[in-house]
From TrEMBL:
Lineage: Eukaryota, Metazoa, Chordata, Craniata, Vertebrata
Membrane topology: Multi-pass membrane protein
Stored InterPro entries: AB_hydrolase_fold, PGAP1-ab_dom-like, PGAP1/BST1, PGAP1_TMD
Gene: PGAP1
GO biological process per UniProt: anterior/posterior axis specification; embryonic pattern specification; endoplasmic reticulum to Golgi vesicle-mediated transport; forebrain regionalization; GPI anchor metabolic process; protein transport; sensory perception of sound
Primary location group: endoplasmic reticulum
Pfam families noted in UniProt: PGAP1 (PF07819), PGAP1_2nd (PF25141), PGAP1_3rd (PF24660), PGAP1_TMD (PF25140)
Cross-referenced Gene3D superfamilies: alpha/beta hydrolase
Species whose genome carries this gene: Otolemur garnettii (Small-eared galago)
Annotated protein name in UniProt: GPI inositol-deacylase
Coiled coil: none
EC assignment: 3.1.-.-
Residues of the GPI inositol-deacylase PGAP1-like alpha/beta domain: 78-296
Purpose: GPI inositol-deacylase that catalyzes the remove of the acyl chain linked to the 2-OH position of inositol ring from the GPI-anchored protein (GPI-AP) in the endoplasmic reticulum. Initiates the post-attachment remodeling phase of GPI-AP biogenesis and participates in endoplasmic reticulum (ER)-to-Golgi transport of GPI-anchored protein.
Subcellular location: Endoplasmic reticulum membrane
Keyword Ligase attached: no
């Protein structure tokens, strides 16, 4: 490879490494606290009916318990509130421990007035995210488990008629799939909470069973949204979860389903942390929030989770969306009694601060609104009192000492170190005073700050830098006014491919103690806020990137809310982060990379076949990859097709031909259209294709060397035969293996046999070349011997020329064959990798079932096995004169386009596109 191309491949590796680094390591450290059990955990196996256990031998149902609770409930029936936990991909039923233990401790605190019984399903840790053939089976088993659980409460005074479900990862999708079952009654589920569940689309669509499962669920939920009364909450992990990006967890068509909420864990009040895919199950902050919500959902009359959908939404909004720093009350008192022993302090200034230690008396600070309403537009108060009492009221009468006040605490917002309240004064024309309540405190510190301000003085517009500035330019704003709150509007920021770094530098004067500032990145169109807490005397860097793109009909602006100190001046600088942009590309489109790799491989493969047809020689893979793998050979066709699909006549023609939906249209519907993303992925794919081909070729040569060390052939290889005698027998055996066991296993065995044959060809060619080279040297030395006569010298010279010519032809044919076989090995390697998940699933469940059913790779195996068998016995010298070679060399180009058009979002289609040119290549031996 040329120096220029090598520099290109190295630079692509560097860029890909930057993107991967941002995805895997470019986030904050894990701030989740570990949840612990205080007694030995026990998992009691629930006895299932014999027919059910026989039908699902790999699945089980368990009841979680600790200590005395576990002992008491070994004798059924139960008396609590049932909650069913569904693990996800490769998940364990024991993951229920965290939420179950916390709920048990909470029940003990209230003397078991209410308590929850946590059940968990053992799915045998199946890899359902990679193999979708068992998803429907899991769904049916969960249905039977729900009916079995409800029977355990039969005869009790407050027997439940439904269960609540917590689903982690794919477990949440299985829970949603319950509604698609024909005999399922929706009333059996009263609440569904999913954690890190990819609702929109599969992370890696490696077989059609997964995509069909998703399509069935999402279509059902969209078409029946008005009839689905199931209250659903989806919680995402944020940027720490690199396995399931948070954009996939937002429930589809949320606006049509009023009983559904989607939120990122970093925005959940009292949680405020990003979780990875596993820690979302045991993160103490999040599980505490979940348990608090469960207990607030209990109906005091039925002692079960309420059936009132409005109350369920109110509770979930209270705990997961916007916490007003008060305990949840179904019917909160609007008017509060402010009488009693207390001290009233009138405040007439526009900005005011109060600090108290060991306060013994209640104090009411009153702010007259009449004069302030004429000058200011907003009132803002913040307090360090984080208890659950009311703390701010609005006085209706005209005096500064009101006996009754309107409780405004429900409009407050809880933040990690403070609770704050923002009032728009014109919305409360009837209020005469604002009253801030300071309770009696002992041994603690209480701080309250209030101010009135005009909106325009605290709202600052800051346009973000351009995408292609690469961080070389920045934009800055300085906050000179002394205030408690600033609202920075980040203009032109609403796409997922945008990523920025904001640096906040504070300069404080007169601060005698450390003051904490809070920076909240607020996204108005989705609940994915993130918080950054820092000391005011330290510079802080904030990463800004999105999980969900801004909808087209949404005019809101992303905001950076700053809760600051009045003694400090702030300088805010924003600039584009190139590494985070690459991270967004990898995060949103990394799953499509195999399709682009195969597209580049197909272009190089077609170039090698054409060079063999036109010149009689097969060019080096790196040379032909540089020549043929060009984005303009693929992208324009995809872009043009996407454009034409916007016209009704072309769409009708497309549907008439029964063509599948273009993957680019799927990405557009998911708001995942990056500018130049296809070009970037094509460059990454070409780079990956080059290095994978280099690794594949090196591996083959290494295996050949090992084979030579183990078995040293001393004879010349036998004459080249197009097909070996054992080929039909081996092909039939592998087909039978694929039919009776697993198609992916047969593909793997066929691939290994092919690699073995290539090693033999490489070894035989090297040996043949060595022996011929030695004969040539002997002839040359003999011809230079002065004892030979002139006649003998001519004879030896003739033999030398013939042998040298034979040597030249053999070396060229061997080199062409090896180059061709190396490319085929590279193609087959990717096919094997894409089929591996079903093989792993089969091996994991081999003790339960010898045959994989359904098998996504079986149709592919039946065609690929004989094709590979023929290719393993193919030499370029035998196909040069084939009439089919020209056609075979022209097919890879349209197939490379098809891989991008139909395989980037459906990876299971990629091997089918690769199989066609391989089959034509094999047929060149017969035509």
């Amino acid at each position: 490879v040329s120096l220029w191309n090598l520099a290109f491949y190295v630079s692509m590796v560097f860029m890909a490494t930057l993107g991967l680094w941002d995805v895997f390591f470019g986030f904050e450290e894990n701030k989740c606290s570990m949840s612990y059990m205080f007694e030995y955990p026990e998992y009691q196996k629930i006895q299932l009916p014999k027919k059910l256990a026989k039908r699902y031998p790999t699945y089980e149902l368990y009841l979680y318990g600790e200590g005395s609770y576990a002992e008491e409930h070994k004798i059924l029936p139960l008396t609590g509130i049932p909650v069913l936990f569904l693990p996800g991909n490769a998940g364990s039923y024991k993951q229920v421990r965290s939420v179950g233990s916390i709920a048990l401790r909470k029940a003990e605190d209230i003397d078991f007035k209410y308590h929850f019984d946590f059940f968990s399903v053992n799915f045998n840790e199946e890899l359902v995210a990679l193999y979708g053939g068992s998803l429907q089976k899991q769904t049916k088993f969960v249905h039977e488990c729900i009916k079995t659980i409800l029977k355990l409460y039969k005869g009790q005074e407050f027997a439940p008629k439904s269960v609540a479900i917590i689903g982690h990862s794919m477990g949440g999708l299985v829970a949603r799939a319950l509604l698609t079952l024909k005999n399922f009654k929706q009333d059996l589920i009263n609440l569904l909470i999913t954690q890190a569940t990819p609702h929109v689309a599969p992370v890696m669509p490696l077989d059609r069973f997964i995509t069909d499962f998703y399509m069935t669920i999402n279509n059902y939920w969209i078409l029946n949204a008005q009839h689905i009364n199931l209250t659903t909450l989806s919680v995402a992990g944020g940027f720490r979860d690199y396995q399931v990006r948070s954009g996939l967890t937002f429930l589809p068509k949320l606006s049509h389903h009023t009983s559904a909420l989607s939120v990122v864990s970093s925005a959940v009040p009292k949680t405020w942390v990003s979780t990875d895919h596993l820690s979302i199950v045991w993160c103490k902050q999040l599980q505490l929030t979940t348990v608090r919500a469960f207990f607030d959902l209990i109906d005091a009359d039925t002692k079960q989770i309420t059936q009132n959908s409005k109350k369920k939404l109110s509770v979930l909004n209270h705990h997961f969306i916007r916490h007003p720093s008060k305990q949840f009350e179904e019917n909160p008192a609007i008017i509060s009694d402010l009488t009693g022993t207390s001290m009233w302090v009138p405040v007439k200034v526009s900005k005011w601060s109060y600090v108290a230690y060991n306060e013994s008396d209640k104090i009411y600070f009153t702010f007259p609104l009449e004069n302030h309403r004429k000058i200011y537009t907003h009132a803002y108060c913040q307090s360090t009192m984080l208890d659950t009492n009311s703390w701010i009221f609005g006085c209706i009468n005209s005096t500064s000492m009101c006996r009754q006040g309107v409780d405004l605490s429900w409009k407050a917002e809880l933040l990690p170190t403070i609770k704050s309240l923002m009032l728009r004064l014109q919305d409360y024309p009837s209020l005469s005073h604002l009253v801030v309540y300071v309770p009696s405190i002992h041994g603690s510190k209480f701080v309250v700050d209030c101010e009135f301000f005009k909106e325009e003085t605290r709202s600052i517009q800051l346009p973000v830098t351009h995408l292609f500035s690469f961080g070389l330019s920045s934009r800055k704003v300085v906050l000179n006014t002394s205030g408690l709150y600033y609202n920075i509007e980040l203009l032109n920021f609403g796409q997922i491919y945008q990523a920025f770094k904001i640096n906040v530098v504070s300069k404080c004067s007169g601060a005698k103690e450390e003051i904490t500032s809070i920076y909240k990145f607020h996204i108005p169109w989705s609940y994915e806020d993130s918080l950054t807490i820092a000391q005011t005397d330290l510079a802080v860097q904030i990463s800004l990137k999105l999980h969900i793109a801004q909808p087209e009909n949404d005019s809101h602006v992303a905001l950076l809310k700053m809760y600051t100190s009045p003694d400090c001046q702030y300088e805010v600088t924003v600039k584009t982060s190139f590494s985070q942009i690459l991270g967004q590309v990898v995060r949103f489109h990394g799953g499509a990379l195999p399709a682009y790799v195969m597209s580049s491989n197909l272009l190089a493969y077609g170039g090698q076949l054409y060079s063999l047809f036109s010149t009689g020689y097969c060019l080096e893979y790196a040379t032909i990859l540089d020549k043929e793998a060009k984005p303009y050979k693929v992208d324009p066709f995809v872009i043009m097709t996407k454009f034409l699909l916007g016209y009704k006549w072309f769409k009708e023609l497309w549907d008439t031909l029964l063509l599948p939906e273009l993957d680019a249209m799927v990405l557009t519907s998911q708001s995942m259209c990056f500018p130049l993303v296809s070009l970037i992925l094509f460059l990454f794919g070409t780079c990956t294709a080059y290095w994978s081909a280099l690794l594949s070729s090196a591996s083959v040569r290494l295996l050949s060397s090992l084979w030579l060390a183990l078995k040293r052939p001393s004879e010349l290889p036998k004459d080249i035969k197009m097909l070996s005698p054992d080929l039909p027998f081996l092909t039939v055996v592998l087909i039978i293996v694929g039919w009776t066991t697993c198609g992916a296993l047969a593909i793997l065995l066929s691939y290994l046999h092919y690699v073995f044959k290539v090693c033999q060809i490489l070894l035989g060619s090297d040996k043949h070349f060595t022996i011929l080279y030695n004969i040539s040297n002997i002839i040359k030395s003999d011809s230079q011997n002065p004892k030979h006569s002139r006649r003998s010298e001519k004879k030896f010279n003739h033999r030398k020329d013939v042998t040298a010519h034979h040597l030249h032809l053999s070396a060229n044919d061997a080199e062409d064959s090896l180059r061709m076989h190396s490319t085929v090995v590279n193609l087959l390697t990717w096919i094997v990798l894409l089929s591996m998940p079903s093989l792993i699933y089969w091996l994991k469940n081999l003790r339960y079932c010898f045959k994989l059913t359904p098998d996504p790779c079986k149709p592919l195996a039946f065609i690929l096995i004989p094709t590979v068998a023929v290719l393993g016995n193919t030499y370029t010298v035998s196909i040069k004169s084939s009439k089919l070679l020209k056609t075979a060399s022209q097919f890879p180009l349209p197939l490379a386009v098809g891989v991008i058009a139909f395989g980037s979002a459906h990876l299971y289609r990629v091997p089918c596109f690769v199989l066609v040119p391989l089959l034509l290549h094999a047929l060149c031996n017969f035509m």
